[in-house]
């Protein structure tokens, strides 16, 4: 399966226009944003757990990172409420689920296979002082990528000319790029050489962003 697999092209996905698709586990559905592969895949996905649903135990051979968008995500390592950013590098494993239900934004098979850095962070707690109406937290940085979370006041603008490509998710609120409105849970991916400029709407915006990583995009090695 290939979805938005050409990383040389800009992509915008409006979440509310994507049908929920069932996963192999009852009660777990997903909206696929990009994907190369079938059940073992390099993938970027919004996943929804119904209350009381669980996924089977599995090992993250290619690593996993996710944001909890609403509800509480749970595994044997703890409870992770909305606003949590989690990195589970290659070789980690867990049994995910949610007693109350939750929605997460998750990326699979996009780690350096030698990475062993595992953590969870409250994104709001990491925010620095605002500059020009934009408060930003650096959530992770390595030789491949930089991951940030920004909170924009209404009308504030976030820009980036980072090399290696740019990807963002609107976590809350809305943002406008080139006249197009990116609403809650909308996703944007820009290839190498593209400049980002988004302006928060009247309700402000909370934006998760990753840069540099598209230089390493491709099918997972299994």
From TrEMBL:
Matches recorded under InterPro entries: ChrR-like_cupin_dom, RmlC-like_jellyroll, RmlC_Cupin_sf
Domain of life (superkingdom): Bacteria
ChrR-like cupin domain: residues covered: 9-111
Name by which UniProt lists this protein: ChrR-like cupin domain-containing protein
Organism: Marinobacter excellens LAMA 842
């Amino acid at each position: 399966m290939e979805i938005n697999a050409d990383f040389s092209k800009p992509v915008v996905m409006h979440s509310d226009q994507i049908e929920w698709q069932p996963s192999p586990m009852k009660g777990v559905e997903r909206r696929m944003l990009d994907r190369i592969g079938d059940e073992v895949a390099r993938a970027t996905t919004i996943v929804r757990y119904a209350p009381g649903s669980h996924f089977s135990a599995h090992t993250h051979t290619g690593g996993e990172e996710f944001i909890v968008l609403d509800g509480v995500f749970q595994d044997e390592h703890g409870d992770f409420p909305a606003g949590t950013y989690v990195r589970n590098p290659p070789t980690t494993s867990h049994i995910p689920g949610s007693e109350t239900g939750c929605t997460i934004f998750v990326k699979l098979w996009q780690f350096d296979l030698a990475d062993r850095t595992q953590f969870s962070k409250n994104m709001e707690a990491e925010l620095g002082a605002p500059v020009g109406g934009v408060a930003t937290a650096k959530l992770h940085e390595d030789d491949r990528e930089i991951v940030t979370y920004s909170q924009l006041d209404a009308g504030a603008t976030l820009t980036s000319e980072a090399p290696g490509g740019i990807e963002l998710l609107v976590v809350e609120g809305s943002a406008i790029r080139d006249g197009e409105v990116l609403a809650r849970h909308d996703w944007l991916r820009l290839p190498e050489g593209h400049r980002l400029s988004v302006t928060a709407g009247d309700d402000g915006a909370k934006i998760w962003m990753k840069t540099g990583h598209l230089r390493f995009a491709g099918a997972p090695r299994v």
